[in-house]
Amino acid sequence: MAMERVRDIYVEDIMTKVPVIGSPNLTARDIGILMRSWKVGSVIILEDGRPVGIVTERDFVEKLVAENRIPAEVKVGEIMSSPLITIGPKESVADAGRKMGRLRLRRLPVVVGDQLIGMLTENDITRLSPSLIELTREWRGIAAPADFEREPVSMAGYCENCENYSYDLRQTGGASGRGGLLCSECREIFVRDPTQ
């Protein structure tokens, strides 16, 4: 039933309409400054007006820090993730969530043809409903190999118990029907007394 409601909501309804962009000839340091200035976790790279890649925090960790490279000496074209995985604006949020979960992505550039028109992130979906982000996590778990052991995943949103906003929500509980997406304080209470 919840899925039927989600199908009526389209990517264009909740996407960020003005994503941060850069070009392949900028340095990794330039992109880092952009990310800090705009308080974003990614920058879409455009070449001749077309999206060709994306740079995320993970790219910085894996391709710069872990390899001990100097950001001012590395062109962003060397560290961006490419080819770019995108989604269309008329796709449903449910389909976008499935795609993000299956491909283990936290963001999807939104394109029409070869034109960038926005960015869909887990945060956009969370603002719609924190429970939808749990669906992306479930789809990710379904798509993962059986021997893959997942660690608890935190997300941002409103606690289903105290209704306070938290950056550390986790799915708690199970078959009992109690619990839900809880902040750390409510999780502690739940662990001590699951009947609360």
In short:
With 196 residues, the chain is α+β, with helices and mostly antiparallel strands. The protein is built from nine helices and eight strands.
* Strands ordered across the widest β-sheet: 1-2-3
Determine the CATH superfamily of the largest domain.
Answer: CBS-domain
What's the end-to-end separation, in Å? 27 Å
CATH second-level architecture of the largest domain: Roll
Beta strands, count: 8
Describe it.
The chain folds into 2 domains: 2-128, CBS-domain (Roll), CATH 3.10.580; 153-196, no CATH class. 38% of the residues lie in helices and 23% in strands. It is of the alpha+beta class and 196 residues long. The model is unreliable at 1-7 (pLDDT under 50). The chain is globular and about 55 Å long. Strands 1-2-3 form a 3-stranded mixed sheet. A 3-stranded antiparallel sheet has the order 6-7-8, sandwiched between helices. It has helices spanning 2-7, 11-14, 28-38, 57-65, 76-79, 93-103, 122-128, 130-143, 184-192; strands spanning 21-22, 42-47, 50-56, 107-112, 115-121, 155-158, 165-173, 179-182.
Task: Record keyword descriptors for this entry.
196 residues; alpha+beta; CBS-domain; 2 domains; three-stranded mixed β-sheet; three-stranded antiparallel β-sheet; 9 helices; 8 strands; 38% helix; globular
Write the layout of secondary structure elements.
Blueprint: H1 2-7, H2 11-14, E1 21-22, H3 28-38, E2 42-47, E3 50-56, H4 57-65, H5 76-79, H6 93-103, E4 107-112, E5 115-121, H7 122-128, H8 130-143, E6 155-158, E7 165-173, E8 179-182, H9 184-192
Parallel strand pairs: 1-2
Antiparallel strand pairs: 2-3, 4-5, 6-7, 7-8
Helix pairs in contact: 6-8, 7-8
